[in-house]
Write a structure and sequence with these properties.
The chain has helices at residues 11-16, 51-56, 82-88, 92-96, and strands spanning 2-7, 22-25, 33-39, 67-79, 105-120, 127-130. It is of the alpha+beta class. It has one domain (2-130): Hypothetical protein (Archaeosine Trna-guanine Transglycosylase, Chain: A, domain 4), CATH 2.30.130.30. A 6-stranded mixed beta sheet has the order 2-5-4-3-1-6.
Length: 131
């Protein structure tokens, strides 16, 4: 059984291409371990303020809409306070790739590996099980 997190594009591909190592969420998790990243079928919102800059990080990369595209390890879940956010701002690329504000959570990802054969899947909310 795979533990999976669905993420909207281009953020899922940014993780797969090792441009993003922290997934930001409004909720915390106690789960640690292997986590697969599923790219939502929802199309990219070009009205998002920093979308052009995000897409520049992965030029010409194919989005993984509706597929589990990579696996990683979820190694930490950090509550975002003012000090944490100030530290993240020093890494402009990571800061650009997330929603950093006090009271949210930073899910720290490591050992990211692209799947050679992406897995078609519907997706779901929260962390979900596949097969």
């Amino acid at each position: 059984m795979l533990k999976v997190l669905t993420i909207i594009e281009p953020w899922a591909t940014l993780i797969a291409k090792k441009k993003k190592f922290i997934e930001t969420r409004s909720w915390k998790t106690s789960y640690r371990g292997e986590l697969y990243i599923h790219a939502s079928k929802k199309k990219i919102d070009m009205k998002y303020p920093a979308m052009d800059k995000l897409l520049e990080l992965i030029p010409n990369d194919e989005m993984g809409y509706g597929k589990i595209i990579c696996k990683c390890n979820l190694v930490d879940c950090v509550y975002m306070d003012e000090k944490f956010i100030e530290e993240i701002k020093k890494n402009e690329q990571e800061y650009l790739c997330g929603g950093y504000s006090e009271g949210r959570y930073a899910w720290v990802l490591a050992n990211i590996e692209v799947l050679k054969n992406p897995i078609e899947a519907k997706g779901n909310l929260r962390i979900w099980n596949h097969r």
